[in-house]
Amino acid sequence: MLILRSLAFNLAYYLNLVVWMILCLPVLALPRRVFMRVARLWARSSLWLLRVIAGTRVDFRGLEKIPAGGTIVASKHQSLWETFALLVILDDPAYVLKRELMWIPVFGWYAWKARSVPVDRKGGAQALKAMVVRAREEIAAGRQIIIFPEGTRRPPGAAPAYKFGVALLYAKLRAPCLPVALNSGLYWPRRKFIRHPGTILVEILDPIGPGMPRDTFFRDLEARIEAATNGLLQEAGARRG
User: Fold this and answer.
1) What span, in angstroms and rounded, lies between the C-alpha atoms of 180 and 77?
2) Is the pLDDT of residue 241 over 70?
């Protein structure tokens, strides 16, 4: 039954994605704010499919902690799930993503329209400088910059592997940072098609104000996210038990 429901969801999810991408091509000609509202509708439809077909729900906690205006959102990254689910709780987000993704036909067009922040992972100091310049433009416009500090998906319980790019953004942008913990990898595992029923827990932590020394911020951010994520993993285990 689990395999059949997972297969049905994956088929529905990607079909839904393709349909939205095709039908929304005219939206590229509209203002970006309109485009972001449409993207949020797509994300909500994906969460609905996940709940109805796979039996996977979501519990967002601490939404009242999201500050208004330009913010760095530093999220744990365990699954494909959070790459779209965070759209539904943020006002006007811009993702930090691999530059190569901007070159993908259709998807890349949408990424450009959303004014995503591309980064060349092999570009060294110059690439990081370019990322900061782009992120500063979006922060000045009052947007939320979503960055996954580990750079790639990490399975639940894996040792953390945070990259220093998030600390660079924090130091250069002088904006608050909003840590986000989650346990999505328990229900939407990376590189697997199985979707487990249950409730994905997402916890918005207290914002970290600007001005903290860069190294101190980096250690504090990792400690906060990892402690909260481990708590969510334990809570999920207790529910299953």
Assistant:
1) 9
2) no
